[in-house]
Amino acid sequence: MKHFIRHSASAFTALVLGAGLALAAPAPNPMTPLAGRPAGADPLDPMTALMACPDASAGGEGNVDLGGLPDGPGAEDTYYQCVACHSTEIIKQQRVTDHRWDELWKWMVEAQGMVEPDDETKKVILTYLKENFSSER
Q: Exposed e or buried b for every residue in 55-79, given b needs 16+ CB within 10 A?
């Protein structure tokens, strides 16, 4: 009986420690699945940033004053929100789903420390990103 209790206690301890280690694991980086994969490697995977040629309606080079972003409602808000951390080239190369834009926004705020603007500005920026840099259009 002592042998059973000792092994049960050891198993319980291992279980508790293992669960604690699993809970302490760092949050996954949503950009990691893209590392080393060519753009468009799996067109059904919303994590894949599809490189696409800008369409002619986007105005070719875009607005030079806004880092080449296409003109339109939200372009200026998007420019000033995003270039605080990265270039507009990062934005312009994206072709992800609308849902993925929402996930990336949340990740940038929670994991990368992006300062979140007021709700109306956030809506304007996400709408702009989805209308101009979505794989759904």
A: eeebeeebbeebbbbbebebbbbbb
Per-residue 3-state assignment (H helix, E strand, C coil) for 65-88: HHCCECCCCCHHHHHHHHCCCCCH
How far is it, in rounded angstroms, from Cα 50 to Cα 94? 6
pTM here is 0.60
Half-sphere exposure of 97 (CA within 13 A, CB side): 9
Task: Name the packing angle between helices 98-110 and 119-132 (round to 10°).
Answer: 130
Six-digit token string for 102? 């929402």
Find out whether 50 and 42 touch, Cβ atoms under 8 Å.
no
Residue 67, token pair as written in the block:
């880092």
Hey, which residues does 63 pair with through a beta bridge? 69
Judge whether residue 107 has pLDDT over 90. Answer: yes
Beta bridge partners of 134: 96
How deeply is 48 buried, as exposed, middle or buried, from its count of CB atoms within 10 A (0-12, 13-18, 19+)? buried
